[in-house]
Amino acid sequence: MKVEKMFLRAMQICMVLAMFCVFYACSEENVTHEPEPPTEDPVPAGNAGEVEFDITNNNSEGGNNGEGSGSGTTPEDPAVATAEEGVDMTISAKSSYNDPNGTTFTCEPKATITLSVDLDTVYAKDIETLTKVIGTPKVTTGNTGTNPANYTTNQTFNVGGQNVTFNLGYEVYTHTNSKKQKIEMPYIKVNNANFGACTPTETEAKSRSTETASVRLANVTVVPTQKAMSRSITVTDTTTYEVTARFNLDVESKNSANDSKQTLSFEVKYIAVITETIEYDGAKLTYEVQSNASPQNGVYVANDPENPLEILVKQESSFMGTDGVTQTGSATTKITAIAPGDVYFANKDAISEDEVKKHTAITVEEENLTAPLPYYDFEEVKFDGYNIKSSNVTDTLETYHIVAKYSQVAKPVNVETATDKPDELKFAYQVEFIAKVKIELVDTKYRQAYEWLPPHDNIPWRYHFIVYRDRIYSNGKTVTDTFTSVNRIVEYGIHADGSNGWNAKKSWEKDDHMDPNATDTLSYCVFGHIDVDADISKITETELRPPYEIGYSEDFGTYENDRTGQYFSDSKIDGGWYSDRVSYYRSFYIFYEGVVHLDSYPSIQTYSYFLYLDGKIFVFDRVDLSTCTSECTLEDAESDFRGKVKVLKHKFGIDWLGKHCRVELTDTIY
User: Which helix (DSSP H) or strand (DSSP E) does residue 136 occupy?
Assistant: First the structure.
């Protein structure tokens, strides 16, 4: 036994996935959004991984052919298959990946190769027919499992009437590393086999029974009816050959920095008989189709779950061999299609091709003929798609009539000597069922937001609060309900309170909103006069007090419903907005002879809000006092009318819903 080892260094491919988030807000109710599923693809291990593998021909030791089976690793030592014993080859790999955190992850993916030969003897009319591949090799592939994922390929070559079948398979593991990346581990891939050459060597003829010198008729189902014929045969010459057919395939490393391949060699050995001169009546076929349902417009339909579609095909075949012995055989094939009952899906998107095929599979049970007999070789049943004939949607249920279509082709084989050449047969099947989708509320999500409304005419900037309720249904649809509070404006106030004998009289000269087109800062400016009826030269000092708020309460019983005026209580109104006015101040004290005589404090008023919905309370936060800003000065000045005066400038601002709201006060004190 030869064992080949290869160490493959893989290269790392870094993939950066750009993620983006889309925020969508809608002021209308009942807006539908389609969800988008996330995607994730594995990243090759790259130069952070390596793989080591062994190739073993399990027939080389302990098999019927002993050491003669060969390792298959070189053209000089091919793995040999016969009708008595095929080739069973295993590729055992050790794969490793070095994680960015310093650890090493290992796994042991496997690959397998089996080679089988149908016949120990074939018949051909000449060397050319015997040594060439007839038609295109049949190839079917499959993919099952996730970790490991199992990839399979089935290849069947028809070499001059001999069926040579390769069954190939390999495993692929994935690993999630410390960076949350999905890594595809290094592995060994088995590529499709290739036909090399077919060499016949003349040998001595041996006595062979009709059972061993035979052709196995696989997938026999429907054959044409013909009248029985009398047969006669004259054989003038035959030659026996030992045939050697050669094949090769590549195994290669994947996810490696330096791709590496190794070619494996195989030989298939069997006996062939060339009949150079033969005269006889043609071979014959008879068949009978029995079914519990008549075809509709040429299509066999299964649409009743209580009454499956059944097709029974009985075949009789005969052929006179070169030894003058007439060989006969029979086969019975049962084709069944069951229409499922009502099939429920989570949503319409789940009605996929794979799901339809899973519920409408057509099964074939057959007995095979064993003789060099003419027969119809039925290809695999082909899925031709599906359609929705009709649908009905109610508030709670979606109903769809699904029609799955299948077809099958049967080609005549071993009919070169038949008197009447049969045509290719085509069959069509149809399986129908009802698909239902229950529409149910599966989840509810909530989102909070706010929105500013720009000024127009004499209306300043306004704001309101929003709660979005996303109702997610089992059919994949999302319905969004929007709940919006009443519109509010930021209110401003100017205050000047006198004490200790001062008669502080307030008068306004001007007040306005500054820059109404501003988007980030909302300002309100006031100009006024304060008559204190005192000697302002005795104003000795000032003091700016910390900011504070009035009106905010965590006792929701103080909040009033915007629409009904009702206070929040046990008799709550579902979907109700409740608010409470909150004022923010920062006082500026003016001392007269060491005693506070004037308290100047501009104020800004907002609203604290919450929404009571579905038994839940959605609270919108109040102003963060740490964001308050203030600038206060008191300076001497001259007035044309009052003489010496004091000019008080007080600017006070808060951050509110993404904007800076500010009030500016300029007062003349005399």
Answer: none
Report pLDDT digits (tens) over 370-427: 556 778 788 899 999 999 987 787 778 889 999 999 999 888 787 776 767 778 888 8
Cβ-based neighbour number of residue 615 at 10 Å: 7
Strand partners, 619: 610
**C-alpha span between 664 and 651 (Å, rounded):** 4
Which residue in the block uniquely carries the two structure tokens 């290094």? 186
Q: What is the CA radius of gyration of the chain?
A: 45
Full 3-state SS string of 292-307: CCCCECCEEEECCCCC
How many whole angstroms separate alpha carbon 456 and alpha carbon 93?
Answer: 75
Residue 284: burial class (beta carbons within 10 Å; 0-12, 13-18, 19+): buried
Q: 127: how many CB neighbours lie within 10 A of its CB?
A: 15
Q: If we measure between CA atoms, which residue out of 426, 408, 424 comes closest to residue 363?
A: 408
DSSP H helices, 140-262, are: none
Q: What is the pLDDT of residues 92-121, one digit of tens each?
A: 999 999 999 999 999 999 999 999 998 888
On whether the pTM is more than 0.85, the answer is no
The DSSP secondary-structure symbol of 547 reads P
Is the CB of residue 117 less than 8 Å from the CB of residue 271? no
DSSP state of 37: -
Read off the tokens for 398: 């979606």
